[in-house]
Amino acid sequence: MTNQGSSTRYSDRDIPKISLHNFDARVDEITAQLVHAAETDGFFSIIDTGISLDEIEAMFAQSEAFFTLSDSVKRNVPWSPRNVGWEKNGQVRPSTGTPDMKESYQLQFGSNMEGMWIDDPSLPEFKSITKQFMHHLQQVSEKLMLCFARGLGMPDDVFIKAHDASKADCQTVLRLLHYPAVEQNSLVPKGYFRAGAHADWDLLTLLFQRPGQSGLEICPGREVVTEFGIGDTWTKIEFEPGDIVCNIGDLLMSWSDDRFKSTFHRVVPPVDKEHDCWGDRYSMAFFNQPCSSATIQGPLKKYPVVTGEEFNRNAMNRNFAALKAKKEAMEASKHGLLTTVSV
After folding, report:
1. Within a 10 A sphere around the Cβ of 305, how many other Cβ atoms?
2. How far apart are CA 314 and CA 322, in angstroms?
3. pLDDT for 207-244, tens place per residue?
4. Dihedral sign of CA atoms 31, 32, 37, 38 in order
5. Helix, strand, or coil (residue 193)
6. 216 has which bridge partners?
7. For residue 88, pLDDT beyond 50
8. Would you state the pLDDT for residue 341?
9. Dihedral of the CA atoms 228, 229, 232, 237 (nearest 10)?
10. Residues 6+ positions from 7 with CB-CB distance below 8 Å
11. Smallest Cα–Cα separation from 48: which of 73, 23, 80?
């Protein structure tokens, strides 16, 4: 395989590992650690969460079982603009202008999931196991939300109420992801990424990846949430068994008046035949998205008040505008025109 990343600059960064053990007694200490991580690279891992390795592996098994189903069966739960359902090679990043090489299944708590669960005959127990896993992730997320609220001097429950999983308009998503295997001797096309560089739109993402299934990289550098600019130095992120790697999303960056950083990240294709993951790669991401009716504004009021629905729509519009500009620049490049675009 040709090494597309030969000109990429890499550096080591200290990604904090934060224990939630004895949370109630250590909440101030944990809050200080989380705030420091959020103010720097915006990425950290958490341990001692109460979610066992066995539970994580059981959910990965359900994910694999879903993606093993035929495409004709998975089409019974097609992706919809409500951000639920199955999609394949359908997500295009403004950073690349080409589709990510993956398939995913988006799952929510609220009314958007009506008719969007894979049926029991196709995958028995999938719904019950997945919903239990999602509720456990919600409990962990709420501990982190409390800490970030305190760090910003806001009421303890401000983020928790805005992401209430019991509400019908809850938009939080568990996304199951499958990246297909790559042939070691194949020539990967220019611009190929398993997932192109992007920042998440949500408050906070909890990510699960199996050890040895490499590819995740981060690139800090954004200063304001409305820009697509990124730094120029990447860091590879490795996982240990049971790790939950977390990153700040655009919503928390905005809600903190840009104090906390939502960092660009990507999943690169394998290059190193001895160390990279060439086989099928699976990951799971829990995106804490606000309820549609939630009211959002930071303590300094840097940005106007918006609802959760408006914030997501604005984020999508920025993304589509950047994608359009990227495609126009790519088309102009084909015709030898000089175009400048920032994504």
Report:
1. 10
2. 12
3. 998 877 767 887 876 666 666 555 667 888 787 888 89
4. positive
5. coil
6. 267
7. yes
8. 37
9. -40
10. none
11. 23
